[in-house]
């Protein structure tokens, strides 16, 4: 039976969104800081958060456990024991002084939906696994995706030697939490058992807000190439050196950065973006022509070809600007992470559920990294973005999600699950060799 958003909009149904917001509020009270929300990997706050999530999973009718890296895993079992598994979820760690919905919305939406199915006595023809990933943001140990990397069987044991800012080893943090490190390998899922991975996540940007839409379907999770650029001119007297005889590293940087802005604005369809988040004149002085200028570059796009084409143009521009201004330069690439395209067959089913909810399906790329990026190495993935209020601000306590939007997203996930058709067996398994190293990759 086809139902529309209006028909579904009964008080009982609206409870899905209200439940998600109430749970997010409750989790938001667990914080390492007195003011604001901070929940970093394997702190007491983080472990308390995991226990609460596991409890909600059990109350919703799932079998729940916390695995050796701290992921909270809830399984809503099909009546068919031979059934394969569809995974949904997101991360429960936060940045320092973060928002209440980043990551958590995807977990809590899935639990609310399972609770609804369980209350109605509805079973699914596949096992549904809800994973609350323990670590995605890379805050405490400066290494992202600790949770999902274990799920895909790519947790690098060398990570256990990482230290937090107090010099505490990741290995000791896990051992103190009572985790059995010898079982980390066993967390890896068998890709042949997986039907796919679907993640609901707050957009963390202003695009849906601008489009006046509650949700959008993600086409691809942008990869990133990051560079450190050093320009070397000549520092000389600001009063005595005529304009024509200067080798000013900062004005060279300015010319380059204006080009980065212009070049990245040219390719909207690829969601190309370029940013120089760090820009310095080392030892600069008010009366000295900048002898050096250092800046970072972060170039992202929804497809790697568009991103690489922009990078090539930017590198050529750096060369010509430096040549004409007699500036020396070095460029060091510090990160290269390929983009993770979403699977068209999953996007189509998500799109159909969006349409059945009375919302125009709208596609957008994700500029931020997400757990889906790692899951894409072993199974097909899709993502549903939810509108982010307050101008799209995220990684900030001002991050907001309306109860209506939380509810629409939950109903779409519910409807998607009830209509879900697995992809025919051939070709669902992706080669692990496609994997690219993205350990240093951060949102
Ligand atoms: Zn997130």
How would you describe what is shown here?
By secondary structure, the protein is of the alpha/beta class. It folds into two domains: 5-221 and 339-434, Aminopeptidase (3-Layer(aba) Sandwich); 223-336, Alpha-Beta Plaits. 33% of the residues lie in helices and 19% in strands. It has twelve helices and 14 strands. Strands 1, 2, 3, 4, 5, 6, 12, 13 and 14 form a nine-stranded mixed β-sheet that branches. Strands 7, 8, 9, 10 and 11 form a five-stranded antiparallel β-sheet that branches. Helix 10 crosses helix 12 (403-419). The protein is globular. The site of zinc ion has 5 residues, from loops.
Summed up:
With 443 residues, the chain is α/β, with parallel strands linked by helices.
């Amino acid at each position: 039976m086809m139902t529309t958003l209006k028909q579904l909009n009964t008080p009982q149904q609206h409870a899905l969104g209200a439940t998600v917001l109430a749970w997010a509020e409750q989790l938001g009270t667990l914080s390492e800081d007195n003011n604001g929300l901070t929940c970093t990997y394997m702190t007491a706050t983080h472990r308390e958060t995991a226990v609460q999530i596991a409890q909600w999973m059990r109350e919703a009718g799932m079998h729940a456990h916390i695995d050796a890296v701290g992921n909270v895993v809830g399984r809503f079992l099909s009546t068919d024991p031979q059934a394969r598994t569809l995974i949904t979820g997101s991360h429960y760690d936060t940045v320092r002084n973060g928002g209440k919905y980043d990551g958590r919305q995807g977990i809590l939406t899935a639990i609310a939906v399972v609770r609804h199915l369980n209350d109605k006595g509805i079973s699914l023809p596949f096992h549904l696994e809800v994973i609350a990933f323990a670590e995605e943001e890379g805050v405490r140990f400066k290494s992202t995706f600790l949770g999902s990397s274990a799920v895909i069987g790519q947790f690098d044991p060398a990570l256990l030697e990482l230290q937090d800012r107090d010099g505490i080893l990741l290995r000791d943090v896990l051992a103190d939490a009572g985790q059995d490190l010898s079982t980390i390998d066993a967390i890896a899922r068998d890709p042949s058992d997986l039907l796919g991975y679907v993640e609901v996540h707050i957009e963390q940007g202003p695009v849906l807000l601008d489009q006046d839409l509650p949700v959008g379907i993600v086409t691809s999770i942008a990869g990133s190439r990051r560079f450190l650029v050093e320009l070397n001119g000549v520092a000389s007297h600001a009063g005595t050196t005529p304009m024509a005889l200067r080798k000013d590293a900062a004005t060279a940087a300015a010319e380059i950065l204006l080009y980065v802005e212009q070049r990245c604005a040219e390719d909207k369809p690829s969601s190309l973006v370029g940013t120089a988040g760090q820009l310095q004149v080392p030892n600069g002085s008010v009366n000295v022509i900048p002898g050096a200028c250092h800046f970072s570059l972060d170039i992202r796009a929804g497809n790697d070809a568009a991103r690489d084409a922009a990078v090539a143009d930017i590198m050529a521009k750096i060369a010509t600007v430096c040549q004409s201004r007699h500036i020396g330069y070095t460029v060091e690439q510090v990160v290269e992470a390929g983009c993770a395209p979403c699977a068209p067959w999953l996007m189509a089913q998500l799109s159909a559920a969006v349409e059945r909810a009375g919302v125009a399906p709208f596609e957008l790329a994700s500029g931020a990294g997400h757990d889906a990026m790692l899951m894409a190495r072993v199974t097909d993935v899709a993502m549903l973005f939810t509108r982010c209020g307050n101008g799209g601000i995220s990684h900030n306590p001002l991050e907001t999600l309306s109860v209506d939007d939380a509810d629409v997203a939950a109903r779409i996930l519910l409807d998607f699950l009830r209509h879900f058709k697995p992809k025919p067996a051939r070709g669902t398994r992706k080669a692990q060799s496609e994997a690219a190293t993205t350990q240093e990759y951060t949102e």
